[in-house]
Amino acid sequence: MNKTLYTVLAYLKLTKPIITLSVSFSALTGFVLFSKAFSDGWLVVYLGVLLIAAGSSVINQIQEADSDKLMERTRNRPIPTGIVGKKQAWLWAALLSVSGALILGYQFNLLTSVLAVFTLLWYNGIYTPLKRITPWAILPGALVGAIPPAIGWVAAGGSLIHPHILFLSFFFFIGQIPHFWLILLRYGEDYQKAGFPSITSTFNTEQISRLTFVWTTATAIAAVFLSVFGIIKSLTIAFIILGLSLVLVISFYKWPGIKRPALVNRAFMIMNLYFLLIMLLIIADSIL
């Protein structure tokens, strides 16, 4: 592979593109939910959140570079392998983060930019260091997934204390928890090897899988309540969400005790697909 292309791909990998694209899409969901259309600025809010989320991801990889060397899952990342130096990574993170914050602040309002910067500071300044202290860092860390929809909502002109965005953010908050349990089921030993406190030392695999099922069910129930809170207005879409939520719960019904990595990976994909479909349905309901 061409060396220049290899380096470009390394810098791209630092941004965790799949995660950042998902985060940006949740912000777009909040934007369309308020504006009821792909009104002026929808692409800008997507780009702004994408840039600052990418910058946050780069900072995270700088912070955890030493730990990443010790874990099978992360040892081939650009910084542990030496493809990208920490100084270059910091410059890349600054360029991305500052650009995102300026774009959001200039195009929309100060609160939009402040929320985005707060998310970065919370993720990199609170959640990431807290992972070294307690295995329950996911609880405050889940806030990171709840804020992006609010960023989009506020960018479109919505109030931060409106019940619709508060409940939508709550839904995304709840959904972060089973994601974390799934990662623990798959990579718990890896985390312990790198020195992270892990609940795998407190709970066995069966107990963690039961917790995953409980939080997955809570996520499905929260999705159904989107129509109760008036976020979803179409009866047809409400029934589709009900059906998807039932499928999600049923697919996890026999989960307690599952240990095979292939099944954990499958469950992770199902959860990600579920969230993508819910966001698409919220957008469809808003514009139709």
CATH class bucket of the largest domain: Mainly Alpha
CATH homologous superfamily designation of the largest domain: UbiA prenyltransferase
Subunit arrangement of the protein: single chain
Order of helices and strands: HHHHHHHHHHHH
Total number of domains: 2
Secondary structure tally: strands: 0
CATH architecture of the largest domain: Orthogonal Bundle
Q: Span between N and C termini?
A: 46 Å
CATH-defined topology of the largest domain: Tetracycline Repressor, domain 2
Mean pLDDT: 90
The radius of gyration over CA amounts to: 19 Å
The major pleated sheet works out as: none
Summarize, please.
The protein has about 290 residues and is mostly helical.
Description of the molecule:
The chain has 288 residues and is an all-alpha fold. The chain has 2 domains: 1-160, Orthogonal Bundle (Tetracycline Repressor, domain 2); 161-288. The protein is 75% helix and 0% strand. It has helices at 3-14, 17-35, 42-63, 65-68, 86-107, 110-130, 138-141, 143-155, 163-193, 205-228, 235-251, 261-287. Helix 2 runs parallel beside helix 12 (261-287) and helix 9 (163-193) runs antiparallel to helix 12. The longest helix has 31 residues, at 163-193. It starts with a helix and ends with a helix. The mean pLDDT is 90.
